[in-house]
């Protein structure tokens, strides 16, 4: 796209500066540095990019290069998609600073959203990577992993599987004897302490087939009880559900109160930084950065408050 545009516009002696695999959120890129060195040496007369955010996301630093350095070195700057051309005086360049600000804000907003999504997924117990962690299998998930607890220390027990292998003698030669494959749950406290050469809890495990047999017995006993005492079972389930709903509603109210308090605090902070900015105690750059952060946090909290209020109304 760039080479085609340059050819159509009559530019010759083209040179490519490409930073593949490097983030545009900073200027510490090899080809960017090489281009600046060539500009200092006076061998670059025009810089052509696809759009403004291909340079960098920091609007102040981008403005320094496009509005100060390039003009000082008589370097023409063109951003094709944004219709920015420093050689034209048709007013198209007046919008460039706003594009730089929006590009920087976009990076911050995207980063904040990604962190929020990953945090929420982690709190919900969902996986955050494409790699299965130790003790898990991607194609054969054990539904009880993390739901079984150690009777001694109360920590979670995780499922571990090992395949059988052939034993060897003291000289390292195969013996023709094989160990049995293992599938059991082990205490996480002991496993973590062992890796740090510490003694915590004890070495014990429970076989998966034993746990499944116990669960099957409980399911059968529960099913028999339901068939024989249906009305009493329904009453107990409703009672347990009501208690759980009360507990959940209490937790939601506590969270709602905390977030409403934070929204009020943010309003106070916004007023404070506005006054500091007016009085000259806070620079315009710092004011804009803090204001954007506070307003973004406030917007997220307001959405969360609306969700919590709707959830409470459903109880």
Descriptive terms for the model:
315 residues, alpha+beta, four-stranded antiparallel sheet, three-stranded mixed sheet, 8 helices
Describe this entry's structure for a reader:
53% of the residues lie in helices and 11% in strands. The two termini are 57 Å apart. The longest helix has 49 residues, at 230-278. The protein is extended, with a radius of gyration of 32 Å. With 315 residues, it is of the alpha+beta class. Helix 3 runs antiparallel to helix 4 (96-123) and helix 7 runs antiparallel to helix 8 (284-313). The strands form three sheets. Strands 4-5-8-9 form a four-stranded antiparallel β-sheet.
Distance between the termini: 57 Å
Question: How would you state the average pLDDT, rounded?
Answer: 80
Task: Give start-end ranges of low-pLDDT stretches.
Answer: none
Radius of gyration: 32 Å
Strand order of the largest sheet: 4-5-8-9
Q: Give the proportion of residues in helices.
A: 40-55%
Largest sheet: 4 strands, antiparallel
List the total number of helices. 8
Structural class: alpha+beta
Number of strands: 9
Give the helices and strands, then pairings.
Layout: H1 2-8, H2 30-40, E1 46-49, H3 59-72, E2 76-79, E3 84-85, H4 96-123, E4 148-149, E5 156-162, E6 166-168, E7 174-178, E8 182-187, H5 188-195, E9 205-207, H6 208-228, H7 230-278, H8 284-313
Parallel strand pairs: 1-2
Antiparallel strand pairs: 2-3, 4-5, 5-8, 6-7, 8-9
């Amino acid at each position: 796209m760039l080479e085609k545009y340059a050819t159509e516009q009559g530019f010759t002696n083209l040179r490519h500066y490409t930073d593949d695999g490097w983030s545009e959120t900073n200027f510490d890129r090899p080809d960017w540095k090489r281009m600046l060195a060539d500009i200092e040496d006076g061998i670059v007369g025009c810089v052509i990019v696809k759009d403004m955010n291909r340079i960098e996301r920091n609007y102040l630093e981008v403005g320094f290069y496009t509005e100060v350095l390039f003009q000082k070195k008589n370097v023409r700057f063109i951003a094709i998609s944004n219709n920015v051309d420093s050689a034209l005086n048709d007013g198209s360049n007046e919008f460039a600073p706003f594009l730089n600000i929006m590009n920087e804000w976009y990076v911050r907003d995207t980063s904040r959203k990604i962190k929020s999504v990953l945090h929420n997924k982690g709190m919900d117990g969902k996986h955050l990577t494409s790699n299965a962690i130790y003790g898990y299998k991607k194609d054969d998930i054990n539904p009880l992993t993390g739901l079984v607890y150690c009777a001694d220390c109360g920590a979670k027990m995780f499922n571990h599987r090992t395949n059988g292998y052939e034993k060897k003698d003291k000289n390292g030669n195969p013996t023709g004897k094989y160990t049995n494959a293992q599938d059991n749950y082990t205490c996480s406290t002991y496993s973590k302490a062992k890796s740090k050469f510490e003694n915590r809890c004890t070495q014990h495990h429970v076989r998966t087939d034993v746990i499944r047999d116990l669960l099957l017995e409980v399911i059968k006993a529960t099913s028999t009880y339901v068939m024989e005492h249906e009305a009493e079972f329904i009453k107990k389930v409703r009672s347990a559900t009501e208690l759980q709903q009360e507990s959940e509603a209490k937790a939601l109210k506590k969270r709602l109160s905390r977030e409403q308090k934070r929204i009020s605090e943010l309003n106070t902070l916004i007023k404070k930084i506005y006054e500091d900015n007016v009085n000259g105690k806070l620079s315009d750059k710092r004011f804009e950065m803090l204001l954007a952060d506070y307003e973004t946090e406030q917007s997220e909290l307001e959405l969360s408050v609306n969700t919590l209020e709707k959830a409470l109304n459903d109880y």
